[in-house]
Amino acid sequence: xxxxxxxxxxxxxxxxxxxxxxxxxxxxxxxxxxxxxxxxxxxxxxxxxxxxxxxxxxxxxxxxxxxxxxxxxxxxxxxxxxxxxxxxxxxxxxxxxxxxxxxxxxxxxxxxxxxxxxxxxxxxxxxxxxxxxxxxxxxxxxxxxxxxxxxxxxxxxxxxxxxxxxxxxxxxxxxxxxxxxxxxxxxxxxxxxxxxxxxxxxxxxxxxxxxxxxxxxxxxxxxxxxxxxxxxxxxxxxxxxxxxxxxxxxxxxxxxxxxxxxxxxxxxxxxxxxxxxxxxxxxxxxxxxxxxxxxxxxxxxxxxxxxxxxxxxxxxxxxxxxxxxxxxxxxxxxxxxxxxxxxxxxxxxxxxxxxxxxxxxxxxxxxxxxxxxxxxxxxxxxxxxxxxxxxxxxxxxxxxxxxxxxxxxxxxxxxxxxxxxxxxxxxxxxxxxxxxxxxxxxxxxxxxxxxxxxxxxxxxxxxxxxxxxxxxxxxxxxxxxxxxxxxxxxx
Length: 491
Hints:
Residues 1-22 form the signal peptide. The protein is an alpha+beta fold.
């Protein structure tokens, strides 16, 4: 056994798995697994004690969010559900948002949680449910503007990177074989990293009417997005991006000298990595290509209505149309049990990868992102497939069931998949079962985790993962807004 493996084993046996050492100090291939029983905190009359930081320790405070938390808690009859909502919904604001001014404009750097870096995907999803309240709190609106401005700066710096540092701090991954810079935490090319900022900027604009974010940096970022997407269609060559890493973890590096699997240039966009940060098996990741189509069309609308940049808007629309046509031709295949389904990955040569991963964008989450209609029969076939043991990364056990992925491995269910099942459900009993499962698999902590063991939720990864926490709050608010308070109160 190598010294490194002995060191990791010693850490796990000594209780580091419970989170006593920051996750970023432990090699990513050995994600710490908490197995320490947690006693749910109650006061002397049995009420659940809030797990939020003390007021003075919260990184960002919003009056309207506090008001909304109190309002929702008063509506919910189940005290455990109300407690979970109170802990989870503000977790991004409480613990990950670093707001300041840069050159006289808002600038917000957002940690993922236990990893002190900003992923374009995570940050765009973490603050998403707060946008609906932006008009009721100028401070909140300014913070959200800062997130968008920071994301645009990141895209200008390197459109191929997935995660960024707060300044030129270097990274544990700085020796990766790719064009690393000190401002980058990680440089994995993932289509969705460029889609989430467009989705957030569009939503912010539609809610607030504030077009000030669509300045020169916005235009520079859009030009980078277009160039990168076109490069990764690989029509003329393989493009400039390569990535390799020295690692024991196969999905943390790529084949073919860093170029990834062969891709037939059929109009789809190559994604070397998935939203889980795992390498793709086949290069055309279908959920992310769907996400690119809707994101490009949102950008085109902004470029037309705000910037009056008809040529750039046309380039976005033309690319979206081309990818959409390629999806119609290459994204589906026939399954012997479920009929026509969407593949997870394809290569344009005729190969299909039939599975789903919990991370969003996923096949399950296509309607959540607005990429397909929820009544699309191919989606409904696909939904039945991915939520079954015919999906190799679907796990079902004594504690719960759901989709995981190779990022954590066998038997580990991601709560995100359960939330996506609820978001995309048209059946009240199914939604109720999802909420019941989420409540039963938090290991008594009052928070969501990255993943939990299908037979024992006290075995979980990442006790501080802000995206999943905020997403849980988003789900509860949506269900109430959709008239399903009685459903929640029947739990």
